Amino acid sequence: xxxxxxxxxxxxxxxxxxxxxxxxxxxxxxxxxxxxxxxxxxxxxxxxxxxxxxxxxxxxxxxxxxxxxxxxxxxxxxxxxxxxxxxxxxxxxxxxxxxxxxxxxxxxxxxxxxxxxxxxxxxxxxxxxxxxxxxxxxxxxxxxxxxxxxxxxxxxxxxxxxxxxxxxxxxxxxxxxxxxxxxxxxxxxxxxxxxxxxxxxxxxxxxxxxxxxxxxxxxxxxxxxxxxxxxxxxxxxxxxxxxxxxxxxxxxxxxxxxxxxxx
Length: 263
Ligand SMILES: O=C(O)CCC(=O)C(=O)O
What we know:
Helix content: 10-25%
Number of domains: 1
CATH architecture: Sandwich
Number of strands: 15
Shape: globular
Bound molecules: 2-oxoglutaric acid
Number of helices: 5
């Protein structure tokens, strides 16, 4: 059996940066130590155990708004070092979301781009997502899948979507199948603690989890500090907090940043 050595990386090589820009995604290694990942997994177990009746574990969106402890991951220097390699030194924390698909009946994530989902709230749309494997993420338990190079099209607006059954899917719409070739999809399997990155315009999704193992990913989302957050253009009118994680604002003062809480 091959031993899984746990190496921690805090920078992307120039080859990885080029690969990310060309393909719209990047399979990466581990940024957090084994102890840090163990602590996060325990925290997630407690969060899931505390969910109110009827709330699905795929839906733990923006948990950091009410849980400052998560900032030790979201603005960890090693994370920000890698993000800086990929998008530059001025970094805004845009969002985060645990998508934990329970064993046996985990929902699918329909094919989509994040850029279309967040609509007109961000200009220009330059979000990068770090998807961190809290559990091993495999083809069997519904790992994330991407369409390589699809971010170059930047065409996937909301009218390119059609309805799907929300009881079986994390969202109620999917990108129309005729707009891309699902046969070109790449499965992004990860060992626990590994991560991958994707661009806001990369077409991606994942299958349901019918396996005996939970699949939990923590999506940690960042953007360069020249992106303007149009607070009044939120799709559901809800307020959304953003945080200047590193460097300086580059919007000329257009954004309102929330203070980073004590963690
Ligand atoms: O966790 C998944 O399967 C999909 C994640 C996703 O849609 C995202 O990170 O934008």
